[in-house]
Amino acid sequence: MTNLTITVDENTLKRARMRAIEEGTSVNMVLRAFLESWARPPAGAPGEEFVALAAQSSGGSGAGGRSWKREDLHDR
Q: What tens digit of pLDDT does each residue of 29-61 get?
């Protein structure tokens, strides 16, 4: 993991720490969860559905891979 340094008002941090204690967590865990959620692509983002379908697909080139070359596809 990477560390992140932020600047926040002292009173805000004090209130955040108190709330975190009340909720049985830490300010660090709350901020980490928020950033992870915020950094995710929004639902319905372009390509998201395609990637999900591709991950579920059983299609492929087979165990031996493809046996043709690009040049084989064109009459020259």
A: 999 999 999 888 777 777 777 888 888 887 777
10-22 helix and 27-39 helix, angle to the nearest 10 degrees: 90
Angstrom distance (rounded) from CA 39 to CA 49: 18
Q: What is the pTM of this model?
A: 0.55
| Whole-angstrom distance, CA of residue 48 vs CA of residue 51 | 5
Range with the lowest mean pLDDT among 5-14, 20-29, 35-44, 64-73? 64-73
